[in-house]
Amino acid sequence: MIMEAIGLIKSYGEGSATVKALDNVTLQIEDGEFVAIMGPSGSGKSTLLHLMGGLDSITSGQVKVNGRDITTLKEAELARFRRKEIGFIFQSYNLVSVLTAEENVALPLLMDGCKESVMRENVGKAINLVGLDGRSHHRPSQLSGGEQQRVAIARAIVNNPSIILADEPTGNLDSVNAEEIMDLLSNLRNKSGQAIVMVTHDPKMAAYADRIIFLKDGRIIDEERLGGKIDQKKLVSKLKGSTN
Amino acid sequence: MLSINRLSARQLLVRKGRTILTGLAIMLGVASIFSLLIIATSATMTLERYGRANFGFADLQVVPDPAADPKQVAKDVASLTNIEGVAFERQWMQRGDLDGQRFEFHIKGIESKNAVASRLYSLSSGHLPKRDGEVALSATFAQVRGYQIGRIFTLPLKSGAKKLKITGLINDGPSINSVIAGVYVDMPFINKFGPKNTAWNPSSIQVVLKKGESQRSIASRIEKMHGVALVITADEALADIRRSMASTRSMFSMFGAVALVVGMTLIYTAFGITAAEREREFGLLKAIGANSRWARRLVYREAIILGLLYSAIGLLLGLCLSFAFMWIMNTGEPGNIDVTALSITSEDAIISFLAGIGATLFSVFLPARKIGKIHPLAAIRPQPKSEQSISKTRWAGLLIIIAGITMLFKFSIANNSTNMAAMAFAAVFIIYLGVAIFTPLIIGPLFNLLDWLSLKRVGAAGKLASKNLSAQSLRSSRMVTSILVGISFVFLVAFFGESAASIGHQILKEQAKYDLAITSEDEGTLPFVSKELLRKVKGLKEAELVTSIRLDKVKVTKLDVQGREMKMDKGFNKRLEQNLFTPGINAVDPKLYPKLSSLFFPKGVDGNRVWRQLHGKYVLANRNWAQTLRLKPGDRVRLVGKGGKSEEFEILALCDTFLVGTRHWEVGSLFISQENAKKYLNLNEDSDMLVKLKKGSDKAVAIAKIKQLIKGTQLEVKTHKQIADMVDKLMAEPMLFPSLTFNIAVLASLLGLINTIAIGVLERRREIGLIKAIGGTRGQVRLTIALEAVLTSLAGTIFGVLIGTGIAVILFKSISAANDIKPTFFYFPVIVTSFPLMATVALFVMVIIVSIIGALIPVRLANKITPVEALRFE
């Protein structure tokens, strides 16, 4: 098991105005597993992803990555944890506009104080893996949405993290590009064996996962193991169920 | 209900931090202009009051020739018709301490028996001193010090304190907060205790005309009389003061304008960023029906509110600054610019206030236009932005720089005095305009270069900082330009100051062959070194070499400059003319003097040969004096000494010198052998001594012995270091105003830098959040922002120093090229340009410290950004 969330609670506000974004969520992510989290807007999907990635503070509960409780980490340790163990992919790519594709990918290594030769090698590999050779010196504004998301993926994998957290990675893309990105993520998982946790609305994209977790009102309401078979109808009906 | 004003005010309130930082730029600009105008006006008023007090009720002041008998001149003038009366006055200035405070006493010997004399002085009470031992004091000075009629006033003279009975108080102009005190004594007192050498204190003859007589026409008649050097009418004296102060006022206004221009760059940058940041908001306003004009109006309203508020605060700060300036000026020794009380005029306040509002409105013109063009769709989605490209037309900036340099070099030398300063300033501003246009072309590559360098050294923070700066090259270059303007002006002043000080020190170093100088620091109070005293000092067992110098004034009556008669411009400042044509002469021993002190000869002149030849009918001329009169070696001058004795001499060589004491360079305009001075000019009174001590002798003991010998005289003994310190002090004061003002400009530009970086942080919240999300530490984010601040200010400082050096060198060359006159920095000839290394280091340290401190605000903002924010925008 690469990651474990135990009794996660995240609430905002105080007293009677308290809103529970996550309510006692417990889940495990296995090594190399591809998990999709689905649920309606406001169900707590993104909040769960933030807590798993150590981006936000937990009201109560634990998140363990490789057996280490990240809720006890101090800010600098958390930053190091995110740099080493987690690869983030966002819906709107979140690339640094002033850096080229290559430099965006190099950013986590640079922050880690990596040697230039190692950095060049790793960045080259990551860019090659996402199929962006020849576009590496372009700025984000000179790349298409699909290409930008490939850069974001390359950045997420460049440090060879244990787990990749993706928040609606295809949300801003057309269907052709979306499928390409999902194929890419899937292939990467198959090649490097990294676990992927992906938040998505789209059953087609969720179908790439090994397991789907359904969230509603901050709670896990269902879980589906796909086992390599894709039953979209079932997925859609489950999703509808969680939406209703 | 909501109004456009309320909306504008609310926008400013919502962005408090930025509003304050932008406002500070306006405030500092207005404060600089206002305080400098106050000081200029106050100095003019003070001088006018002194001028009026100096004239009293007289219509004319006649200055006799140093060679003539002043009493005879007074008699001749009095014999003219149209004249009601003539009074004789001898003034003598001396510094002394009263209860630990240093005062400059203007001791005036008056003839109280003369009926006109009593009418010349405006007595507030009592009567003029009628006999030796009586004194009348300035009414304001007496009031401040608590002196009353009938009491005893102790005048601290060098020769010992003198007790005088106060008989009257005279309204002679200002002395509140001042260190200048008017002391009126009867003529016998001056004859008894005053300076022996009257050439330095030319008696002035006050003339009262009959009613209805024209001052100028009578003055012209008197000017033609024998023994008259100069006639000044009361009106001309006041006009002279106003004219000379007008250029000071223009110069001060220009200093203030520099601060305001820097402020304008910042206001422009701040509003430019506002336009980018509030694109969505303005898009929304457009979407719901606002037109471009309305959007622009909103921005102008914000600018007006900001301008009104901060210009008003700027006026208050300006008042405080001028009080501070006055306090600095009135602390310690009397200075070059005397301000006894601040004159705060509504005119100065209105000019400064309008300058602040005008500058603000002018600065927002382009941002407002940009805001007017925002598309309504910006309300719904961010508008696609093309890559920030730098237009190739910016190369035109280079042409503008070249035009500015040409103007600086060519036109500044074609004009003289005030025009030259104005043209030089205009040329400098043209250069800055070119720099502002051109800088974006080099800023991008510069920061890219830094990026390449920092990638290996500073890591992620260095990379991000340099990338951010190069990507935003327009914004970065605006910041760099605003900093470089302030810095280059600070540097320009430092450069000239350093060059002048270096020559002062260089000459002093050359002169430092002596260990002690026996002299007097008081201007115009030449002491008398008797043969007996000289013999006693020579007889000291510690003394190895002793020489005396004879300082006196001569009149230059005939100037044959390469066969041409020298003609002075009619409008030439009369006092300057007086100084030029009655220069100070130094009679020295050509054998001993070079062993104790030396002059600074131009390259190619053999000093030893010059000293050997000085026994002949030659003089050495101070280069500055000679060049002002267009005199060259080989030219002949006729000198008139005491009692009208005169002789023609040839200028053997030009030299540079800085004399002992604080006497102005005019004092050392000519050097002649003591032998010739006595033989041809009847000058035989020595005034200064230079002493070289024997090796291993105790300097303290020698000083003590000399002090004992000179007790009761006007003389003082000074070490070489004391004189060098005096040079530094003299250099510091003229540099005070420009330095302070330009430092304010630098401060304003650094404030703008903080503002810009803070806004940049707010703009990049998402990016900073992302950096943190993917593992960037707080420290890395902090370092990125601090580096942005430091790199920008360092770039501004480097360019500022380079441009400041360039302008200083061009100015130096241009002034030098004009009529062979070397520039002077107040009393110091700037012969060599000298790079102010220490000032540069101090400037860099200051800039780095201030930018790091300044970066704390944006760093705090960045610290508050949590990684979740990177995702909250999803």
Structural class of chain B: alpha+beta
**Number of helical regions of chain B:** 28
Distance from N terminus to C terminus of chain A (CA atoms, Å) equals 32 Å
Low-confidence stretches of chain A: none
Question: How big a fraction of the residues of chain A is strand?
Answer: 25-35%
> Percent of residues of chain A in helical segments?
25-40%
Task: Tell me roughly what share of residues is in helical segments of chain B.
Answer: 55-70%
Give the overall shape of chain B.
elongated
Gross morphology of chain A: globular
Give the oligomeric state: heterodimer
| Count of alpha/pi helices of chain A | 8
**Largest interface, C-beta closer than 8 angstroms, per-chain residues:** A-B, 39 and 33 residues
Percentage of residues in strands of chain B: 15-25%
Category from helices, strands and their pairing of chain A:
alpha/beta
- Low-pLDDT stretches of chain B: 332-336, 561-573, 659-665, 819-829
Number of domains of chain A: 1
Q: What name is given to the CATH topology of chain A?
A: Rossmann fold
Tally of domains of chain B: 4
The largest sheet of chain B has its strands arranged as 14-13-17-18-16-19-15-12-20-11-21
Summary tags:
A: 244 residues; alpha/beta; Rossmann fold; 6-stranded mixed sheet; 4-stranded antiparallel sheet; 8 helices; 25% strand; B: 874 residues; alpha+beta; 11-stranded mixed sheet; 10-stranded mixed sheet; 28 helices; 23 strands; 57% helix; 16% strand
How would you summarize what this structure contains?
Chain A has 8 helices and 10 strands.
Q: How would you characterize the overall build of this protein?
A:
The complex is a heterodimer of chains A (244) and B (874). Chain A is an alpha/beta fold. Helix content of chain A is 37%, strand content 25%. Chain A is built from eight helices and ten strands. In chain A, the strands form two sheets. In chain A, strands 6-7-8-3-9-10 form a six-stranded mixed beta sheet, with helices on both faces. The radius of gyration of chain A is 18 Å and the shape is globular. The model of chain A has no long low-confidence stretch (mean pLDDT 86). Chain B has four domains: 13-54 and 257-320 and 343-356, no CATH class; 69-226, no CATH class; 440-512 and 724-874, no CATH class; 521-714, no CATH class. Chain B has an eleven-stranded mixed beta sheet. In chain B, strands 1, 2, 3, 4, 5, 6, 7, 8, 9 and 10 form a ten-stranded mixed beta sheet that branches. The relative contact order of chain B is 0.12. Classes of the chains: A alpha/beta (244), B alpha+beta (874). The interface between A and B is large, with 39 and 33 residues.
